[in-house]
Each structure stands twice: as C-alpha cells, then as structure tokens.
Amino acid sequence: MTKLIFMGTPDFSATVLKGLLDDANYDVLAVVTQPDRAVGRKKEIKMTPVKEVALEHNLPVYQPEKMSGSDEMAELMTLGADGIVTAAFGQFLPTKLLDSVDFAVNVHASLLPKYRGGAPIHYAIINGDKEAGVTIMEMVKKMDAGDMIAKASTPITDDDNVGTMFEKLAVIGRDLLLKTLPDYIAGNIKPEPQDESQATFSPNITPEEERIDWNKSARDVFNHIRGLYPWPVAHTLLDGKRFKIYEASLVEGQGKPGQIIEKGKKSLVVATGDGAISLKTVQPAGKPRMSIVDFLNGVGRKLEVGDLIGE
Fold first, then answer.
1. Contact 177, 16 (CB under 8 A)
2. In a designed cystine with 113, which of 181, 194, 203, 245 is the match (CB 3.0 to 4.6 A)?
3. How does DSSP assign 46-106, residue by residue?
4. Which ranges of the chain does DSSP label H, i.e. alpha helix?
C-alpha cells in the first residue's frame, strides 16, 4: 500500500481526496489544507472542504499559513510517506519537502502548459475556450511547470460556468489520477516535459477584473459573467454602486454599450459593444441576490429603456 500525504483546499480537491480514500491501494497518512478563513458578511470562520472530508475520516489535518520552514512541514517529513498528491492546494511546496518523498504529483485543472496558476477554469471560460481539462504533473518548485504524466479534456458549453466546470473537472481529475498513478509509481509512464514557449498563466482574479466592460461584444460579456460565477461574481455600476450580475443569457439587440434596450415584467436587456445580454440573476448594493423578476418588482422599477448602467 502506497502511503500518501494529500494537500488541497476547495471542493475540487475534496473530490480527489475522496477518490484516494476509497482506493485500497493508498493509505492517506495526513491532509494539508489552507487555514480556516472568515467568509461572508458575517465573517464566520469556515473549514475548507478538504478539512471537512479529512475530519470525517479521522485523518490528521495540518494548516500552515506558509509551508516553508514551518513546524508542520518538519512533522510531515517524519511520517514516512512514499509520496505527495496535491490538488488546488494554494501554496508552493519547498524543494526540501519534495525531496523527502519518492514522488510528488499535482492534479491541475487545465491542459498544461496552458493556464498555469490559480484560476485556470475562470480564464478558460472568460476567454471563450471550447474545452477545458486536467493534467496530472510532477511537482517542481515552479508554478505548474513540472513534467506531464497524463491529460484528459471535456467540452465547455454555453450552459457551463465555473461551478459546473469545477464539478466536471474534479471527477475527471480524480479518475485520471487513480487510473495513471499506479503505472507512474511502477515506472511505466515516462512524463513529458512542458513546452515553455506555449505556457500561459491564469493568476487569481483581481477585483478590477470582476468589472464588466460593456464595450466588449455580447459573447465576451456573457463569457465574463459565467466565467466568474458562482465566484467571485462579475459586477457593474448602477447609480454609482456595485451591481452584481450572477447569470445572463445572449439575446438579439443593439444599442449604446451599457444601455437598457428592453424592459419587461420578467426581462431586462442591456446592450454591449456588439449585441446584447438579458440579465437573469442579480444583486443590487445592500440587497440579497435575486431573480431579475424580483429586481424589477423592487429597486429596479425606476429603470427605463435608454438608461445606462456601468457609469
């Protein structure tokens, strides 16, 4: 039985961890995840999804703010693990730690060398990619730059968003890892170096990147909205205040970018630089998330065709 240390944080990682725990070939000695954080308006302290799974299985949990030089890392190195498996952990692993095990592999949610970094699924959707995927790669002390062990892909449809793609890719990543890890450990797979000339990057989304640019095409705005849903959520301005748009759809129409070109009891259509989108789910400043119907029956009643948002 191969003894592992698992490192990960979000639901994507939790799916991979569950797969390892259900496989009799592996003994997960410990789990490493990011520290508990305050979330939401009430700033409630919340455990990571990976920590929740680990505690359900009575596994030791380590949560260093920074792995390098930490007491947690020193203790992990004494456990006698054969290897490390990471999936969306969120920290670099020191060379000293990588050298302490026979192997260290990462489950990364992109088709490397495309989209190295922390937000590969967001960028794939925002950029209008037709497919996304998962790469199993060797860990090195450089962001997502290790040799590739295996890849698998899946289409991105107009019905997809970051949430749906995370769910799909988590299952794909779990299955791909469990399929290839035994052969990799046995030395039957020769990892393939990445082509550095083809590398692109997907850093975490900044607050400035969340804002919608209405001068772009309807397709680009549509991709932007679903590429930030369900987190961190795209926004624009309404009466000078942040107005979040969770969901929208592509529709026919032309007008000045950001202009309301159609308003009905159940619809609000906004023009872009080329085409238009119909808003579906929104959140005005100081209000909860709501359907466009509820918005139009409330604070949105004052809006008229010809009004501009985003200014």
1. yes
2. 194
3. E--HHHHHHHHTT--EE--S--TT-HHHHHHTTS--SEEEEES--SPPPHHHHTTSSEEEE
4. 11-21, 49-56, 71-76, 95-98, 120-126, 162-185, 207-210, 218-226, 292-297
CA–CA dist 193, 191 (Å, integer): 7
For the chain, the C-alpha Rg in angstroms (whole number) is 22
Give domain limits for the chain. 2-198, 207-302
pLDDT over 90 at 141, yes or no: no
Chain centre to alpha carbon of residue 46: 18
Question: Residue written as tokens 């995927």?
Answer: 133
Can you name the CATH fold of 2-198? Rossmann fold (3.40.50)
Name the fold adopted by 207-302.
Methionyl-tRNA Fmet Formyltransferase; Chain A, domain 2 (3.10.25)
Does residue 280 register a pLDDT over 90? yes
> Which residues participate in the annotated binding site for (6S)-5,6,7,8-tetrahydrofolate?
110-113
pTM of the model: 0.95
Q: Compute the distance between CA of residue 83 and CA of residue 100 in angstroms, rounded to an integer.
A: 9
Element (H, E) at 241: strand 241-251
Q: Report pLDDT digits (tens) over 58-109.
A: 999 999 999 999 999 999 999 999 999 999 998 989 999 999 999 999 999 9
Q: What is the DSSP letter of 17?
A: H
Beta bridge partners of 39: 44
CA distances from 266 to 59, 233, 269, 290 (A): 50, 22, 10, 12
pLDDT tops 80 at residue 256: yes
**Residue 282 clears pLDDT 80, i.e. is over it:** yes
CB atoms within 10 A of CB 260: 21
